[in-house]
Amino acid sequence: MPVSSHRVATVTGIGITSKTPVTDSNPYNANPSPPKPKIQIVKKDAAGNDADTTATSVDLTGSNGSTGLVFTITNNGTEDLTNVVVTDAVTPEQPP
Questions:
Q1: What is the mean pLDDT of residues 13-19?
Q2: Least packed by Cβ within 10 Å: which of 31, 44, 59, 73?
Q3: Contact in structure between 8 and 27 (CB atoms under 8 Å)
């Protein structure tokens, strides 16, 4: 496998009394893993209910059919993300 990163650290100094310059270097070679983008979204209501299946659906009758929603978006990949957009579409009820 070819090395994709080759770095050399170098240190130098001068002796206080002898005025002799000293130096050392040490290479570091790496084959970093390719970036793996990944993202996760969790949507819960203000009471913490996940309600992501019909079996765990929440009765909103007492709240006049509304609730506050909290979206938690996590970048759980190994690459920074850009242009992250959250949409929340209302769709017909899913069958059980």
A1: 96
A2: 59
A3: yes
Amino acid 64 reads N
* Type of residue numbered 78: T
Instruction: Read off the amino acid at residue 61.
Output: T
Q: What is the pLDDT of residues 31-44, one digit of tens each?
A: 888 889 999 999 99
Instruction: Give the C-alpha separation, 71 to 57, whole Å.
Output: 17
E strands present in 1-96:
5-14, 21-30, 40-45, 69-74
Q: Closest Cα partner for 42 from 34, 50, 32, 53?
A: 50
